Amino acid sequence: MKAVLFDTETTGLIKPKANKVTDQPYITDLYMLKVEHIGNEIKVIGEFETLLKPPVPLSAEITKITGLTDDMLKDSPQFFEVYEEIAEFMTGVDRLVAHNLAFDRSMLANELVRCDKVIKFPWPRDHLCTVEKTLHIEQRRMSLTRLHEYFFGKDFDGAHRAKTDVKAMFRCYKEMAKQGMI
Does domain 2-129 have CATH number 3.30.420.10? Predict the structure, then answer.
């Protein structure tokens, strides 16, 4: 089985569905890690990383959280310009994994709607949210930092950047598999 673990950093939080898709936030940082389950092992078989230039400026709050600035994104592609690479990366994948899957999947869907590709996108059949799969641990939602602390006794540096978060989630995902949680 092949899975893609992914995370997005964005221009803000998703607004109620009554808002137009053009009023929804945009992805600014996308990282995807493709893995393959082979027996009891989970091996990395690919990665995709890009910064994306949104059509709106970043707020001071978003810059504070992610460390990203408008200047850092000014020469980056827009989502529609990397759609083909993203779709190719997802082709043949069985499972989509994210820590806060509802948010990240919705962000991806919003970008796909904006470039008229949501129906054509090769969505994996199985979706796994590490938040939902670990609710039993503390009987509440655990942040990725807290989940990492639970499994490994320490947090990780660089949270709120897509690649760093996915790498931490991958360590947790492998531990969840080892413990029979997934």
Answer: yes
